[in-house]
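Quick one: structure for this chain?
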Amino acid sequence: MKLTLVTGLTGLVLLVTIIELLRRRQLREKYGMLWLAVLLIVIPLSLFPRLLDNVAGFFGVVSGVSLVLFLGIVFLLLVCVHLSWEVSALEEETRTLAEDFALLRAEIDAERAARDELVSRDG
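Got it. Here's what it folds into:
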């Protein structure tokens, strides 16, 4: 009973936290919807723990706890893969921006040098 209560309260605290982060625009909507979907699964399972055993039995898993652990690991792996993909895209974008900035800086330096040469020749 205590674990059920702790799980339910943790789910509710996370729900409030996710909604607040979304409201403050500190969490993008696509990630917020992902975590809200997870909480829509966690909260009912915490309120009805026997449901978890029934779901585990349906999938042929001996224990509901084993099913939760397995699904949690799979979920975290998927989150890691997604975040790695996002980081890779950001690294590429950063590299492209750095290259563009270097080209612009070189162009500005060349124009300054040409202007300084004209000023020194005329002056």
